[in-house]
Amino acid sequence: QRGRAAMRTEISTAAAFVTRLLRAGGGVGEEQLRCFRECLQEAMREHYKHHWFPLVPSKGSGYRCIRINHKMDPLIGKAAGMIGLSHERLFQLLPSELTLWVDPFEVSYRIGEDGSICVLYESPQPGGKAAKQLESRTSCKEEWRIGRSSPSKSYNMMTVSS
To answer: Do 56 and 133 form a contact (C-beta atoms < 8 A)?
Structure first.
């Protein structure tokens, strides 16, 4: 039974990823980065505690989704506050558009509104129901794809009548 302890891998993968992005931005010491990673993991564990459903991995995906979209995600903001990084500084260091999905058995991210989704961590689901669950999946990912058609692309729908 992959219970709550199982969240550990997904959460540490996600926290390590955000920490790598911060490190790449430069100017943050290793000790600060280590604290940031631990604080972020702790904040995520607390936030996801009652929103982790290994039997229905997509359930609660929107709730667990970490977003920077010209607004700072509160979990990242909280961890950064612990090491004295302001939101302004975070925006300089991190992508202005970042979506990170932390789901049971899969952690994936997208940088930019139209970027491709990259998988950071994936593990097979027990019970071999993967195909079935993929069909019924309307997770945060799907909602973003559906809810976000940028106006510039709407010309595809126009028909020219002669």
So the answer is: yes
**Is residue 6 included in any domain, yes or no?**
yes
Phi, psi angle pair for 75, to nearest 5°: -70, -40
Does the residue 90 lie in any domain?
yes
The pTM assigned to this predicted structure is 0.76
Containing structural domain, residue 82: 1-122
Q: Which two tokens stand for residue 116?
A: 């491709």
Structural domain count of the chain: 1
**pLDDT tens digits for range 106-121:** 999 999 988 899 999 9
The amino acid sitting at 22 is: L
Classify residue 153 by burial, with Cβ atoms within 10 Å: 0-12, 13-18, 19+. exposed
The enclosing domain of 68 has a CATH number of 3.90.640.90
Contact assessment for residue 79 and residue 36, using Cβ atoms and an 8 Å cutoff = yes
Q: What is the pLDDT of residues 5-34, one digit of tens each?
A: 679 999 999 999 999 999 999 999 999 999
